[in-house]
Design goal:
The structure holds 2 protein chains of 2 kinds. The longest helix of chain A has 24 residues. Chain A has a single domain, classed as Amidase signature (AS) enzymes (Alpha-Beta Complex), CATH 3.90.1300. An 11-stranded mixed sheet of chain A has the order 1-3-2-4-6-5-10-11-9-7-8, sandwiched between helices. Helices cover about 40% and strands about 15% of the residues of chain A. In chain A, helix 9 crosses helix 12. Chain A has 16 helices and 11 strands. Chain B folds into 3 domains: about 290 residues, no CATH class; about 110 residues; about 60 residues, Arc Repressor Mutant, subunit A. In chain B, about 40% of the residues lie in helices and about 20% in strands. Chain B is built from 15 helices and 15 strands. Chain B is elongated and about 90 Å long. The chains are: A alpha/beta, B alpha+beta.
Chain lengths: ~500, ~475
């Protein structure tokens, strides 16, 4: 059994029927990583020692107590470099954190480690998760495995690319405005942003605290449910993490969409949608209809202002969250005789231009005299965005739409920040409303993947899996492999 | 010279006596630890960490708010106050901005016999910063600075007073009373010197009769009640002089320099920070229902003012004695324990605020922690009350047993210290004393009251100090007046 391009389900079975071992899987994974990553640059660090240690512990558990071993036990995975791991360099793809090794492991990651996960490395991303193409990394862009001259989306581009390349069956990313769903769409894999408050943010380097959520990238919806089930649930270290029990997405996965009412927001298929994307999504809607779902056109009128709201709230929170990178206690410092000069030059040298742009935008939006016009107004509209979803969800069970208005674009083609911000126009409303959303592969345009977005009400995460799984099982898009994944291991 | 009215408002920061810090599990005791020993990823502000609320701190703040007659709105939230300084690792302080835990309270207290009422605008909760040690006077000119984050994240309550105070003396009294209440309800240790109880003052002057406030100056760096009073007096002098000379005052922050006895300018209004407050997204708003507030209210002890009033009515004490005994909760508790143990109220009051207080001070050892203890003192005072020993004997025993402890009753038996109060035996000794001191007797008969002392000492000595002296006094007077 080759680890390349396999699913968690397949690998878990192979580990139990003796056709492979955690060590063998890891060897293959590292070999594949080494061969492919010089083209992709998906990894910022490879955690070889940690991986071997975890693989050996997993092998012992599988041998001694197979009944206790989680489906994730012994299976390689990768983590976006905004997730803290004890003793492992965690940079958020920023020069300011180069060399920073957290003295602790975050909750979601720890839950995977406890389940026997084998972490092979930390993946590249936009600096502090700010971007939609992974071109804002301080450590180089990431190639899309379907066309290395194109971006894999962002900000979790490395986590998406390594799964799409077939190196690991799953990875974790973070989604603040679409940073899991959009790269999943652009690389032809499954990516899920849970309901805000379902997965603990403890150990996630914050970009915008009220919007950030950790979630998985996988090659199948079932795998995605397996990983989500392992990381979700209350954490006393995160006060915004909901204490209610998590509905098991695996138990309702196969219930189908027969009789389900699916909403199609007209604003999500607007002028900016590329014709090929529109055609792929319309075909996907027909598939769902054929499965017994009924389609209903719905309206989310605040969609056009949601982007503006997002670009007030997210930068405001980021301007405060990034204040701790001051060169005093960790990360890089530019030594200067005066404190103010040290602060200014450390931050000037440490942050990239997109981060600086957002810190300045946010600082301005929170400033005395501008707060009411920007931040307060944005919060009011944010509430409205949430209410519009509530209203729509009284009529329909879930919403389906494109994940991204476009397929993967060539590197360097969107130098204007505003055109880059438009990438998230149909994903970020879900972050503002705190609702769960998934991207599942739904076709290709000129050999480049298209993603279908599925949204559901808050805490109806299991329903997202149910819809996405029904669609996935009725189609074969998820079985298409990128050139990197079809390369023999 | 024009007549100015002084307007003073005080802001008090008080650390809460919780075991752990405000937003993490680190010990809140920062004084005894090695620098940066009581820290964790959360209070160090490392990337990726999140705060969680210390419930005890909420409880203590509500307790304080109730003691200050505040309203508890029931919906409250935390906000971020953003500014850069090395003692603030996150680059923001978690505080409360527009929806504090409590509002609209007041404090009433006497100043020179007149009752003063000072409004309390709000009591809210925040976190303390770390401390810095500069190699040099101030950060700007220091060659290096050391940061200790042990104090960082210690729960800090801010009590904002209304500008209702009119004299430095009233300001001082407000602080004394506030500190007394905080220590009474067990939320703060009231240590100004170590900074667990800190005060900033806002002061302005206006022509008497004006209703608009004058230009406000904030005074900082005062670490004793006396410093607050002196700083305010010095500010009044300075501001008066500026106004008298036809000048204008500027809104600024000034620091009290104890050594020079004056304030110096630290920061003008133009240099003031824009803190860019916004709701803390890492902490959901808190809803404090009335059941919670009532549960906290039930834990409130009787407050000093009420307790002093009760001491007067229940124990027949003077206002002065009642105030002295209720000065601290420990003192009032000690007093009531003595009375409960059978010591008459007045006797207990006299001894506790007299000899016992002196010994406690001398040994830096309060009675409850002394060897004698409350039970030992009660036993000693019951002997006095029952006439078993006289006052001087009791005092000697008190001094002897205060630190080491022991059973007064057993000692009295062993050493035969029982008071001699047999009138016939004492009469014989009185006669002997008069016979032995004819000059003193003659002086007394001639109207010299002090002469009695010599005769009393003679009787006392004859009993080895055990005589019932009030009885001796009476017998001597009877005898000398020829009865």
């Amino acid at each position: 059994m080759s680890s390349t391009a396999s699913t968690i389900t397949e690998l878990a079975a192979a580990l139990r029927n003796g056709s492979t071992t955690p060590r063998a899987l890891l060897d293959e994974t590292l070999a594949h990583l080494e061969r492919t990553d010089k083209h992709l640059n998906a990894y910022l660090s490879v955690t070889r020692d940690l991986a071997f240690q975890q693989a050996d512990a997993a092998a012992k558990l599988l041998a001694d107590h197979p009944e206790r071993a989680s489906p994730l036990c012994g299976i390689p995975m990768a983590l976006k470099d905004v997730l803290c791991v004890d003793g492992v360099e965690t940079t958020a793809a920023s020069r300011i954190l180069k060399g920073f090794k957290p003295p602790y492991t975050g909750t979601a990651v720890q839950r995977l480690f406890d389940a026997g996960a084998v972490c092979v490395g930390k993946t590249n991303c936009d600096e502090f998760a700010m971007g939609s193409s992974t071109e804002n990394s301080a450590f180089g862009s990431v190639g899309n495995p379907w066309d290395v001259g194109r971006v894999p989306g962002g900000s979790s581009g490395g986590s998406a690319a390594t799964v799409a390349a077939g190196t690991v069956p799953y990875s974790l990313g973070s989604d603040t405005g679409g940073s899991i769903r959009q790269p999943a769409a652009l690389t032809g894999i499954v990516g899920f942003k849970p309901t805000y408050g379902r997965v603990s943010r403890y150990g996630l380097i914050a970009f915008a605290s009220s919007l950030d959520q950790i979630g998985p990238f996988t090659r199948s919806v079932e795998d995605c449910a397996t990983v989500y089930a392992a990381i979700a649930g209350h954490d006393p270290r995160d006060s915004t993490c909901d204490p209610r029990a998590v509905d098991d997405p695996l138990s309702t996965l196969r219930r189908g969409v027969d009789g389900m009412r699916l909403g199609v927001p007209r604003e999500y298929l607007g002028e900016g949608t590329e014709p090929g994307v529109r055609a792929a999504v319309e075909a996907a809607l027909k598939v769902l209809e054929a499965q017994g779902a009924t389609l209903h056109e719905v309206s989310l009128p605040s969609t056009d202002v949601a982007l503006s709201v997002y670009y007030v709230i997210a930068p405001a929170e980021c301007s405060s969250n990034l204040a701790r990178y001051d060169g005093v206690r960790f990360g890089n410092r530019v030594e200067r005789p005066s404190l103010t000069d040290m602060y200014q030059q450390t931050r000037d040298a440490g942050f990239g231009s997109e981060v600086k742009r957002r810190v300045m935008l946010g600082t301005y939006a929170l400033s005395s005299g501008y707060y009411d016009a920007y931040y307060r107004q944005a919060q009011k509209v944010r509430t409205l965005v949430g209410q519009e979803f509530d209203t729509v969800f009284q009529e329909v069970d879930a919403i389906v739409s494109p994940t991204s208005p476009s397929v993967a674009f060539p590197m360097g083609s969107r130098s204007d920040p505003l055109s880059m911000y438009m990438c998230d126009v149909v994903t970020l409303p879900a972050n503002l409303a705190g609702i769960p959303g998934m991207s599942v592969p739904c076709g290709f345009v000129d050999g480049l993947p298209v993603g279908l977005q599925v949204l559901a009400p808050r805490f109806a995460d299991a329903r997202v899996f149910q819809v996405a799984h029904a669609y996935e099982q009725a189609t074969a898009w998820h079985l298409s492999q990128s050139p990197f994944a079809t390369e023999a291991a | 010279m024009s007549d100015y009215e002084v307007v003073i408002g005080l802001e008090v920061h008080a650390q809460l006596l919780t075991r752990s810090k405000m937003f993490c599990g680190c010990p809140a005791d920062y004084l005894d630890a090695e620098p940066n020993a009581n820290t964790c990823p959360v209070c160090l502000g490392l990337p990726g960490v999140l705060p969680t609320i210390n419930e005890q701190a909420i409880d203590f703040t509500v307790r304080t708010a109730l003691a200050l007659q505040c309203d508890i709105p029931g919906f409250t939230k935390f906000d971020r106050k953003n500014y850069f300084y090395p003692d603030l690792p996150k680059g923001y302080q978690i505080s409360q901005y527009d929806l504090p835990l409590s509002v609209n309270g007041h404090l009433e207290f006497p100043v020179n016999g007149e009752s003063v009422r000072c409004g309390v605008t709000r009591v809210h909760l925040e976190e303390d910063t770390g401390t810095m040690h500069h190699a040099g006077d101030v950060l700007q000119s220091a060659t290096s600075s050391l940061v200790d984050l042990n104090r960082c994240g210690v729960p800090l309550m801010e009590i904002v007073g209304e500008p209702d105070l009119r004299t430095p003396e009233a300001a001082r009294e407000y602080l004394v009373r506030l500190r007394q209440i905080l220590t009474y309800i067990g939320v703060n240790d009231g240590n100004l010197e170590q900074g667990s109880f800190r005060c900033d003052a806002n002061i302005s002057l206006r022509p008497r009769g004006d209703t608009e406030l004058g230009v406000k100056v904030e005074v900082k760096n005062m670490n004793s009640f006396r410093a607050v009073q002196r700083a305010l007096e010095s500010e009044i002098e300075r501001q008066t002089a500026v106004l008298e000379a036809g000048g204008t005052l500027v809104q600024e922050t000034r620091g009290w320099v104890e050594a020079h006895g004056r304030t110096i300018s630290q920061r003008s209004k133009e240099q003031a920070h824009d803190y860019r407050y916004f709701p803390e997204p890492d902490l959901p708003p808190l809803r404090l229902d009335s059941a919670f507030v009532e549960r906290v209210r039930a834990t409130l002890p009787e407050l000093p003012e009420a307790r002093a009033a009760r001491f007067q009515s229940q124990y027949g004490l003077t206002a002065y004695d009642a105030a002295v005994l209720t000065d601290t909760r420990e003192s009032a508790d000690t007093y009531e324990a003595l009375v409960t143990a059978g010591v008459p109220a007045k006797l207990a009051a006299n001894w506790q605020s007299g000899d016992v207080a002196a010994l406690a001070n001398e040994h830096r050892l309060p009675l409850p922690q002394s060897g004698l203890g409350i039970a030992g003192l009660a036993s000693l005072l019951r002997l006095v009350d029952g006439g078993a020993i006289n006052g001087p004997t009791a005092k000697e025993l008190l001094v002897e047993l205060y630190v080491s402890g022991g059973d007064p009753e057993a000692l009295v038996r062993e050493r035969g210290l029982a008071q001699v109060s047999d009138a016939s035996a004492l009469t014989a000794l009185v006669d002997a004393a008069i016979a032995a001191n004819p000059a003193a007797a003659a002086d007394f008969r001639a109207g010299k009251q002090q002469a009695l002392g010599q005769l009393m000492r003679a009787v006392k000595d004859a009993t080895g100090g055990k005589a019932d002296m009030p009885l001796v006094n009476r017998l001597l007077r009877d005898r000398l007046s020829g009865q």
